[in-house]
Design brief:
Structural class: alpha+beta
Helix content: 10-25%
Number of strands: 13
Radius of gyration: 18 Å
Largest sheet: 9 strands, antiparallel
Distance between the termini: 14 Å
Number of helices: 5
Mean pLDDT: 93
Length: about 230
C-alpha cells in the first residue's frame, strides 16, 4: 500500500420493514443512534444540515458524523439510506474514512467492525456485508445481496458477512460454524462469518471450497476492492 493511498471501510445492511410504519428518516435517525459510542465517546454531527436533521428537522439521505478520536478535517463517518422498496426491504450504509497517519486502513477497519456490530444489534438486519475499498478503485464494492433459493444464503460472502432470518436454520448454523474462517459464530439473533481478520488478507482455499459447497449452486467470495484503478 502506498503512503498516499486513500481507503474507506463500510457496511451495507438489509432491513425487513414490511410490518413497520417508520419513515425512512426515522430509520436513518435510529441507525445513527444505534452507533452509540466508540472508544468511550459518542459521535457528533458534522455540519449544519446533519445537525438539523438529528434534531428532528427535515429529511436527509446521509448523515455526516465526526468522532473526537479522529478529529482531522477529512475524517468522517457517514450513515446513508439506500433503496427502500415497496415490499418493505430497505438498505442502510455505513462508511468510515479516516485521514490519519500510519496504517489508516487498519484504523478504518477496526472502527467499521465495531460500528457495524452495533448497527446489527440495534437494527436487526437480515443481511449485512462489511468490506473496504480504495477510493480511487473501480468496480463493485459490496458482495451481492441476492439469496440462493435453496439455502437462503447470499450468493457471495465478503470479508465480514452477517446472516439472520427464517433461512438461518439449526442445520445452516452447523454448516456455517464448520467454515474454516477467521471467525464463524453467533452474533445476536444471527450468524457472523468473518472470513479474514483484515480486509487485505485472503481466505484460505479450504474456506473457499467450503463456501462453494454450502449450496447446490456455488457460493463465491468477493474480496475487498483495495487496488487503485
Amino acid at each position: 500500500m502506498a503512503m498516499d493511498d486513500s481507503y474507506a471501510a463500510g457496511s451495507e445492511l438489509v432491513l425487513q420493514m414490511e410490518a413497520s410504519d417508520e419513515t425512512e428518516s426515522t430509520v436513518l435517525r435510529r441507525a445513527v443512534a444505534a452507533l452509540g459510542q466508540f472508544a468511550g465517546e459518542g459521535f457528533q454531527p458534522k455540519g449544519a444540515r446533519s445537525t438539523r436533521f438529528l434534531n428532528g428537522e427535515g429529511e436527509a439521505m446521509t448523515v455526516a458524523l465526526t468522532h473526537p478520536a479522529h478529529s482531522a478535517l477529512n475524517s468522517w463517518v457517514h450513515v446513508s439510506l439506500g433503496d427502500f422498496e415497496p415490499d418493505g426491504v430497505g438498505t442502510i450504509f455505513l462508511t468510515v474514512h479516516l485521514d490519519e497517519p500510519g496504517d489508516v486502513l487498519k484504523q478504518e477497519w477496526e472502527m467499521a467492525v465495531a460500528l457495524t456490530s452495533q448497527l446489527v444489534a440495534g437494527l436487526s438486519p437480515s443481511l449485512a456485508h462489511l468490506t473496504a475499498w480504495h477510493l480511487d478503485g473501480d468496480g463493485e464494492i459490496y458482495p451481492s445481496k441476492r439469496l440462493r433459493p435453496g439455502s437462503n444464503l447470499p450468493e457471495e460472502f465478503g470479508p465480514w458477512t452477517y446472516i439472520s432470518g427464517k433461512g438461518l436454520t439449526d442445520q445452516v448454523r452447523v454448516r456455517l460454524a464448520a467454515l474454516p474462517a477467521y471467525a464463524s459464530q453467533a452474533l445476536g439473533d444471527g450468524w457472523l462469518v468473518r472470513a479474514v481478520e483484515n480486509p487485505g488478507a485472503e481466505p484460505t482455499e479450504q474456506f473457499r471450497d467450503a463456501l462453494r459447497a454450502l449450496d447446490t449452486e456455488p457460493i463465491t467470495y468477493r474480496a475487498a476492492r483495495l487496488a487503485a484503478a
